Batch of 4 targets.
Target 1
Amino acid sequence: MALARAERSDLDWTHGRGAEARGPAEAVLLAMAGRGAAAADLTGPGARILQERLTP
């Protein structure tokens, strides 16, 4: 996730650098694991970056 910074909205936790992708812990963890199941739950400029990467 070099181009996006993951931030959990339900916990005090962030990871990475770049545009923010914010969402519940479950959505963030799934995205970081390369799974797009909860990508729609992410918000922020980095969410689009991650959603594009997770779409086959």
Target 2
Amino acid sequence: MVANQKFFKRDGVRKNTAWIHKHYKEYRGKWIVLNEGILLGNHYAI
């Protein structure tokens, strides 16, 4: 199970990184909250 947990954690990091690469211009210099490539909150909600 530990190996599977590590895989999912890495997969989430990859999804977050892809999201950041796609949306960095829109949110540059702002606070964001991501979970597995899904925006959960931003500078307006925090």
Target 3
Amino acid sequence: MICSARAYTITLELSTDDGRTYTQTPKTLLGDVGDKVRPGRSKQIVWEAMQDAKGLAGCCIQVVSCNPGSSAEAK
């Protein structure tokens, strides 16, 4: 995909029901996450999972990229 955006909002969403819903947002994140993340290589997000979800037996994570108003075309 080729996008014209210069920066994105990157978030992580957490599911504890095998990916049916993603209703929780991890809080202890570091790295290329949040507002104004520029595109490029070697991006990294670190999540201190046990800080957010003590006793978590299993979960699914999805990374969400959002840039309202940008144009994108599939390639």
Target 4
Amino acid sequence: MIAKRGFVMVDSSHSTYAGTPRWVKAAGIIVLVLFALFVVLHLTGHGFGRHLHG
């Protein structure tokens, strides 16, 4: 698609920025899932606290 910006014609179909890499998205999803699991475990009283005490 060609768009007109000011006096310059810009072809947006040939963008040099490809977006966020797939590994960054995957790592972000994994971190969010682990954080949500951590929060749910602590809210339900099944946290790791009782396993750490000798």
